């Protein structure tokens, strides 16, 4: 761990993660290197190793940041309404998910590599953020749907979180993938992350 205050360490980690996030908007996970990330920060590539040992640890921190932001949105949803119909909740939950495209992209493509090449303490910090998002969603369901039993809520969560792993590929096909589907005569429809999530949640709550 580098010398300096805890605040400086936090600020530098955030700068590194934000640089990674900016690159991930236009580059693939495989293309991005620590050298690329360092070029977007105010310090050297060597300095990055004081905070993250691997590229995967940087992406894990990015994924943790995404889950923390989603948890905040879920908490805001919980606080903003005294009650919520299934339709309204489906729409509001879908909005929170549609804002997390980076999270969904990472979940669908590189989670095993990211977790496998990260130190245990980093992985634990990420799992805590993941669990917090799950609890925030559980709180919303308990509040807005008091008729749901604990088993009902558990069933919903165990369907919804795996759904998140697959929604990005179904809504974000590359031109090459679309061409392949056309040649293979595979039918495909254009749906947004919001549309698929809203429809899935509403059906789950019926």
**CATH superfamily membership of the largest domain:** Tetracycline Repressor, domain 2
Question: Would you tell me the overall average pLDDT?
Answer: 95
CATH topology of the largest domain: Tetracycline Repressor, domain 2
Number of domains: 2
Question: What oligomeric state do these chains adopt?
Answer: single chain
Order of helices and strands: HHHHHHHHHHH
State the total count of DSSP E strands.
0
Helix content: over 70%
The CATH class name of the largest domain reads: Mainly Alpha
What CATH architecture of the largest domain do you see? Orthogonal Bundle
Structural class: mainly alpha
What value does the Rg take, in angstroms?
19 Å
Distance between the termini: 51 Å
Task: Outline the structure in words.
The protein is mainly alpha-helical and 206 residues long. It folds into two domains: 1-52, Orthogonal Bundle (Arc Repressor Mutant, subunit A), CATH 1.10.10; 59-204, Tetracycline Repressor, domain 2 (Orthogonal Bundle), CATH 1.10.357.10. Helices cover 73% and strands 0% of the residues. It has eleven helices and no strands. 25% of the residues are buried. The mean pLDDT is 95.
Topology (SSEs and partners):
Elements: H1 6-24, H2 34-39, H3 45-48, H4 55-80, H5 86-98, H6 101-109, H7 111-116, H8 120-144, H9 150-171, H10 175-183, H11 193-204
Helix pairs in contact: 1-4, 4-5, 4-6, 4-8, 5-11, 6-9, 8-9, 9-11
